[in-house]
Amino acid sequence: MFQLEKLIRANIQRLTPYSSARDEYSGEAKVFLDANENSLGSPLTKWYHRYPDPHQRKLKEKLGVIKGISANHIFLGNGSDECIDLLFRCFCEPGKDNVIICPPTYGMYAVSANINDVAIKKAPLLDDFQLDLVHLETLVDDHTKLIWLCSPNNPTGNCLYREDIEMVLNNFNGIVVIDEAYINFAKQNSFIRNLADYPNLVVLQTLSKAWGLAGLRVGMAFASPAIIAVLDKVKPPYNINQATQELVLQALEEVEQVNDMIRLLVDMRDALAEVFLLMPTVEKVYPSDANFLLVKVKDARKIYEFLLTKGIVLRDRSNVALCEDCLRITIGTEKENTLLVDAMRDWYAL
Fold it and tell me: What is the CATH number of domain 4-9+54-253?
């Protein structure tokens, strides 16, 4: 049975979080003399001399409307990387606990585990890039706190089978983190709709991909109010700055524009895959539910280096297990895609 209290680190349970005076009142204040700000303003604008809302209330309310959930199910981080790091810090005892990852997958799970001195167990994906449930189950022990699943997966681009994810959720008494950074490009529904069904579920999403706001660094964690409360307890008080909150609120008014961009990127992804399949240097283009393609080529490293001479930067994944001789290629603009295709043709014409 899932019991959140048993997963939270003892020192985090005892922690008294930082509290500002603005956490201690409700309503609209007129005079702010509590935070030692520069009351005269700033060189930029009169608004940025004040600290931002530490709870990002307006932003969470708007996201809640878009996602169809209440704001108390939402945590906002300085990029998804902050959400990843906080999950380790809240639930994993350094030098004692462990987590499970399923490579090939997003590299920050392992980086954050190592930073936090948390042991990593690996359940590699099968040849079709799906979960090896039997192997995964054998790795779980009393000190396994988190299982990290990426769907659509990075770098392979595919969604994990929904029934496999549900199997993990139903049989693991720790926290299952589903990283849905690329879910907007996929046909599979988000697991956000299932938060009420799984108290051990955390869903990660981002505004960096489909929403095109990578420069603002906003990641989102969706979970039960109890899990969100633990993350809020540990985060820095002002982790999302005022300018970012304002700009994101503006962007969230443009849902249709974002949907149009998603449709265009998916169309270009599928068209680019067909073009690659006609190239003699390309051995396989893997199906993708994301805004990138994983492409198996002959002499991946040499092609990667050749493209660099043309000013084109891809991601060489050829040294990653199950991704040998593979390049990960983000879908660019029409012009960028054309430049890439022309450069690839230059390569095999040599």
Answer: 3.40.640.10
